[in-house]
Design goal:
Helix content: over 70%
Number of helices: 4
Mean pLDDT: 85
Distance between the termini: 17 Å
Shape: elongated
Strand content: under 5%
């Protein structure tokens, strides 16, 4: 039970740190890619960050199999959570003037919306290759 709680806390820490990656990449890329294209790029950067963090800290341990395969499996599973995340971002961007003025609020709303699905998916993927 304690191990589950520990991994949830670390997953949330990973997500919190990734929120800064997400917002930073969005704000840097927004002048060229706009709110929507910049958000797609920032999501990819944040998902890559969380994979690295979760692989080495949250679900650490000796792994078997291809690192590339694990990364691509992780990213593909995060796409469902990412769709939830992006949908909440777009919805909040369209619904609220404050979010249009400060898209970081939309990133935060989207991140919270995708958290549960992403945690369960990441745990399944990261623990799959762990040696007992």
């Amino acid at each position: 039970m304690l191990q589950r709680f520990r991994s949830l806390i670390l997953f949330c820490v990973s997500g919190g740190l990734a929120l800064f990656v997400d917002i930073g990449v969005l704000y840097v890329s927004r002048p060229w890619l706009g709110n929507y294209g910049g958000r797609a790029l920032s999501f990819l950067a944040a998902a890559t960050f969380t994979w690295l963090f979760n692989r080495h800290i949250t679900f650490k341990g000796p792994k078997e199999g291809s690192v590339l395969k694990e990364y691509l499996t992780y990213l593909s599973s995060m796409l469902v959570g990412g769709a939830i995340n992006y949908g909440a971002y777009v919805g909040s961007l369209q619904a609220f003037d404050a979010v249009r003025a400060q898209p970081a609020w939309g990133v935060a709303i989207g991140s919270l919306a995708g958290l549960v699905f992403n945690y369960l998916s990441a745990k399944r993927i990261m623990m799959k290759g762990t040696k007992a």
